[in-house]
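[step 3/7] inverse_fold.run input=structure_tokens len=224
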């Protein structure tokens, strides 16, 4: 028989942590929206529906106090941290999922793996996107081709008890980097430590100095 001590003091009973439908406690994000326009960040933004998780993130990585933001999802709180990178724990190769998606106003129009379509109705049919990497990017920019959708599931090494987080990116640079990441995870074939960070890249374009922020993941090795 289990203990019944909290029956006499229900206010002291442990509160069940609110989780997303897919057992996640929050999301790491590399950008936000300003007047409906996307803007990139150089330090991680974390969203969650659990005030305890939001407070824990502030305690670990600093930043402003949690605040609400306009969203249709369950992660109604956001924290702008002071962390450019965080050390994470990946369960294994299955912690990273990739696909290419052509989005429309009502949702996904087409999904593929770069060679074949993966949607239920068109599964196995040849991909309709261009073959070359450059042409794929141009088609995605025009809204006629699929764009990357990379999902990374992880726990925070600084406090694994908080729960599992998710980071989703459509970065074309991450598409190239993720190839070596997956090979390293396949070699380890088990839990692994990694850095998940945001890196500022500067370059010259038409005589003007420009920069953008890209997400990076660096596998450190097997988890103890």
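[step 3/7] decode complete -> sequence:
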């Amino acid at each position: 028989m289990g203990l019944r001590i909290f029956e006499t003091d229900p206010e002291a009973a442990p509160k069940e942590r609110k989780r997303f439908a897919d057992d996640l406690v929050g999301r790491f994000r590399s950008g936000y929206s300003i007047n409906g326009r996307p803007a990139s960040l150089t330090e991680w933004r974390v969203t969650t529906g659990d005030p305890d998780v939001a407070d824990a993130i502030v305690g670990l990585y600093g930043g402003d106090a949690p605040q609400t933001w306009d969203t249709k999802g369950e992660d109604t709180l956001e924290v702008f941290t002071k962390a450019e990178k965080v050390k994470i724990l990946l369960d294994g190769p299955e912690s990273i999922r990739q696909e290419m998606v052509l989005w429309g106003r009502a949702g996904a129009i087409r999904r593929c793996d770069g060679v074949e379509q993966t949607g239920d109705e068109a599964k196995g049919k040849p991909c309709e996107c261009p073959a070359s990497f450059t042409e794929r990017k141009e088609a995605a920019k025009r809204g006629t081709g699929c764009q990357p959708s990379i999902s990374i599931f992880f726990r925070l090494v600084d406090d694994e008890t908080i729960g599992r987080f998710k980071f989703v990116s459509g970065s074309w640079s991450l598409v190239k980097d993720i190839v070596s990441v997956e090979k390293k995870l396949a070699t380890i074939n088990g839990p692994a430590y990694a850095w998940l960070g945001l890196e500022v890249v500067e370059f010259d374009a038409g005589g003007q100095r420009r920069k953008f922020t890209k997400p990076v993941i660096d596998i450190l090795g097997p988890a103890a």
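[step 4/7] annotate
The first strand starts at residue 26 and ends at 34.
The chain has a mean pLDDT of 88.
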